[in-house]
Amino acid sequence: MRTALKGSLALAALALSVPLLTRQANAIPAFSRQYATSCVTCHIDFPKLNDFGKAFKDAGFQFPKEDETYLKVAPVMLGAEAQKQAFPKSVWPGTIPGMPPIGLRFNSFFQATGSSRNRFDPLAAPGVPQIIPATDFASGLFSIFTAGNFGSGIAFWVDDDISVAGVNGAGGLGDAYLKFVNVSRFLKLPKDSLAVRVGQFELDLPITQARSYNLSPYDIYQEANIGAMNSMVALQQNVSNQFTFSNPARGIELTGGHQYGGYHYSVAVFDQNTTGVDQSSNTTPYVPSATGGANGGVGFGSTADFKNVYGRLSYRFNLERDSESRHDIQAAGPAGPRDHSYLAVGSFYLYGKSLQQFAGMNELLRVQEPYYRAGGDFNFNYRRFNMYGVFMYGRDQNLLPVDNTDALISLPLTSSSPLPVNFIKSVPAQFDGGFVQADLMLHPWVMAIMRWDGVNSTADRINGLALAANTPFFAPVHSTRNRFTPGLQFLIHPNIKFSFEYQIRPEQSVVIETDPLTGKLIAANPFRVKTALFGLEFVY
Amino acid sequence: MFRLRMILALTVFCAMAMDAGSITGKVAAGKGVSVVWVEAAAGKTVPKPDKPLTMDQRSLLFQPHILVVPVGATVEFLNSDNVQHNIFWPAISGNKKLAHNLGTWPKGQTRSFLFETAGVVPLLCNVHSEMSGYVVVTPTPYYAQTDEAGNFKIANVPDGSYTVTAWHEGYKNQSKPVSVGGEGTVDFTLAK
Q1: Where are the alpha helices (DSSP H) in chain B?
Q2: B82 touches chain A (CB under 8 A)
Q3: What share of chain B is helix, strand, coil (3-state, %, to 5)?
Q4: Over chain A, what is the mean pLDDT?
Q5: Region A179-193: what's the mean pLDDT?
């Protein structure tokens, strides 16, 4: 099977498992233990950060000022303070947390799916599940995470899913990095204007997916640009770019500013991997890996030479009238400190190259297809009400294979297709979409949520339930997926949460017919799947 | 009339000459200290303390954890942390009408509050929900905090009959009568 199509099928399989199992990190009970403080010191409805939590994170997982006075568990000194005076004839001393800063998290779900959930059955390829159950108890994630500070402004974070959906080892590494905070002090730049993060991390998204408090992920962050290689579609696409914002990036990031007020920026350079191949299996027996022998080591994270570049710039206007309060980490309200009222606006841009490859006439035919993602966002907070949104546009250049006569080869490729020898530019494969979400804290322990997700893509097959039958999931005339998701979340304790979401989706179809009156393609046998999702999770 | 004056003068003299005793005893309750105080007797007034007492917020803790003051005392609430704090109490001895919120103030500054009602004031901070402290406002100046073993001694109590109350965090109050004629003794066993 051609690689691009193989990639599409792999993505489709992945997409089926995504809604419940999106990799998420969470609140850090280890900090609670170290500082003997409650989760709500840093979180509103964990893992949503309040302004103090944002400042704590910006400072490298420590209190922004005089951190040592708040620690209830003294850190272990890795060398006397006076060793600094002996440097460079001694190792610069640091610290490790006085207790292993480990947090654990588990969640489980109950899901109910709408009555038309099985109407695609006659068209779907055999597989599991053959029947979607009306109601279901499902296991979620059991995750471990650790984070803290090693002194000298060096922070660390590692999270990993030990078990996913009840299967041990099925998860993976989430974020795992070292962050050198306030590097700007060495360059005599303004405080906190430059920090460096190295490792694997979620890109500096406007609204985090990895630490989302929603049960279901943001659809736009899950959007991979996979071309619709369908003979029924006039403008064929050969795009097999499996990059999504929901996956962690491996690379280096420069960042500066604060999340709780003023400017914030980040610039990241990270591996390009658009084929979906795992690092562990991205090896070759012919070239020794730098981290091991032939066909060994930790493999290669990249699938091409090019490195992606991501940048984000945002500014948050705190709206408190009192100047002193406006510039403080939290606003000084008449009934106690609280999050600021604020308006934040930002934009982001990613440039990358997606690897396209075919078994060509004389050799494996490869080309790096440029793509970019660009978007803007806003975030408004007034007391207990928070509303934010992200809009994103994605564009892949769409290089189509041609045969030795420079004629376009009909897609998808089959065993009788001519062999591709080159690529030519075609109409770009584009998508756009985003989400808008509003949260209202009804009580400190109850949050009401209303969210809209929308993705418009002429080649949207991320839900490709009927991919094997070569039918698009959505009618070409309405290649859009929308979702309204009202929800409620209850904190039973600061570390135990019960969540509910009702996901309202538009009508969908896996069957296309031609309207006898208009001659246009229409969706036949439409069905609408609404889902109710209950989640129970705890961290400790 | 003369007889009446003589009786009054004798009463005053006796009162002036009356010995001050003490009340001792033991409170059996959970870990930590308890507070024991003498309830007000009808018709008797108590002098207001002349100096304010201080409750500090330091290292995300109320320090001291329990502050005992007589009714009419002013307490100064200090913020020694460089993070913002708040102090509020949802009730005084369960009376939610006496709830109060002192707001927010920066490091090194204080907010004062005059406690005119006796009772147990549970102190909370609305941004650090684990913070817990108490101001125990006693109706008389005759009070004591126990040691860790529960022993207490209330000194300089005028001889007479009183009601003595014991309080311990998380336990139900208990009141008992005691007579002070030089020394009175009373023990408590508190229950949750």
Answers
A1: 2-17
A2: yes
A3: 10, 50, 40
A4: 84
A5: 94
Count of CA atoms in the C-beta half-sphere (13 A) of B8: 5
Q: Are residues B171 and B126 in the same domain?
A: no
- The rounded distance, in Å, linking the Cα atoms of A414 and A410 is 9
Render A329-353 in DSSP notation, one character per residue: SSEEETTEEEPPPEEEEEEEEEEEE
pLDDT above 70 coverage of chain B, percent: 88
Q: Which residues of A touch B130 (CB under 8 A)?
A: 36-38, 41
pLDDT digits (tens, 9 = 90+) for B9-63: 444 434 444 567 899 999 999 899 999 999 987 666 667 777 889 999 999 999 9
ipTM for this model: 0.77
Q: CA of B126, closest CA in chain A: separation in Å?
A: 6
Strand-pair partners of A508:
A527
Any domain includes A74: no
Domain span at residue B102 reads 47-138
Residues of A in contact with B88 (CB under 8 A): 335-336
Q: Domain range holding A455? A: 3-69+101-539
Lowest mean pLDDT across A26-35, A474-483, A523-532: A474-483
**Which phi and psi (to 5°) does residue A122 adopt?**
-60, -25
Q: How many domains does chain B have?
A: 2
- Residue A339 CA to residue A441 CA, distance in Å, equals 12
Q: Which two tokens stand for residue A311?
A: 């940048």
Tens-digit pLDDT profile for residues A304-355: 888 999 999 999 999 998 888 898 999 988 888 999 999 999 999 999 998 8
Q: Name the residue with tokens 């200090």.
A: B78
Contact B105, B93 (CB under 8 A): no
- Residue B85 sits in the same domain as residue B163: no
Cβ-based contacts of A336 with chain B (< 8 Å): 86, 88, 101, 103-104, 125-127
